[in-house]
Amino acid sequence: MGFADRYVHALNATNLKDDERHGQAEPLMASAFAAAATGDLGPLLHRVKFADALSRKAFEGNPANLAQLLRLWIAEVTKRGRARHWVPENTAWDADAAQKLYRQVAEHSLAYWLDGKCEPCGGTGLDEKRACKCCSGTGKAELSMAAGFVREHTLNMVSELHNIADSHAARAASRLRSVR
Ligand SMILES: [Zn+2]
Fold first, then answer.
1. Partner of 17 at 20 to 30 A CA spacing, among 73, 121, 123, 159?
2. Ligand 1 centroid, distance to 92 Cα (angstroms)
3. 140 Cβ neighbours under 8 A, 6+ residues apart
4. CA of 14 to the centre of ligand 1 (A)
């Protein structure tokens, strides 16, 4: 896996705070971040996922952007995990373990969503015009970093990341149509 995966996993609480202070984003990205801070992650996710290769590289190459996106996503996963009662949070120990779980699921799912391509075929699913053997033609990498409970929630959150980005794209497209 590439930069995003490695970087997301290398992040820790301390440099999240530092990056927040030093964060700089281009204007479009800044407005997407502003929307995300109010709870609508759609514009930001859509922009990261479907931006052209160059601006995506710029986004992923900027640690502050990824740190900010991860911070927002951890908050969102925490909200969803709590609402769905993934784990009990009755005691301090429970709450601590729950916090760790939300964070892990957020890190894994964001990294995989950003960068979950099969490496040998580069996500095309093809190997010399045949289905890639490594991914059986899906173009997706094996979700190897998480197992069991964490893996299950991670896969759910990956598909929710897709949903958030896609439904924003659909909303934006219908707004465009109604303007014409
Ligand atoms: Zn492949």
1. 159
2. 44
3. 116, 117, 118, 123
4. 36
Reported as a pLDDT band with limits 50, 70 and 90, residue 53 is confident
Distance 44 CA to ligand 1 centre (A): 28
Please choose, from the candidates 35, 32, 37, the residue with its C-alpha nearest in 3D space to the C-alpha of residue 48. Answer: 32
Question: What's the 115 CA to ligand 1 centre distance in angstroms?
Answer: 13
Report pLDDT digits (tens) over 112-170. 998 888 989 988 999 988 999 999 999 988 887 788 999 999 999 999 999 998 888 88
pTM of the model: 0.79
Helices (H), the chain: 3-10, 13-22, 27-37, 42-50, 53-60, 63-83, 92-115, 148-179
Give 178 Cα–ligand 1 centroid separation in angstroms: 40
Using pLDDT thresholds of 50, 70 and 90, give the confidence band for residue 36: confident
Tell me which of 106 and 32 has the higher pLDDT: 106
119-122: long-range contacts at Cβ-Cβ below 8 A with a sequence spacing of 24 or more?
A: 119/1
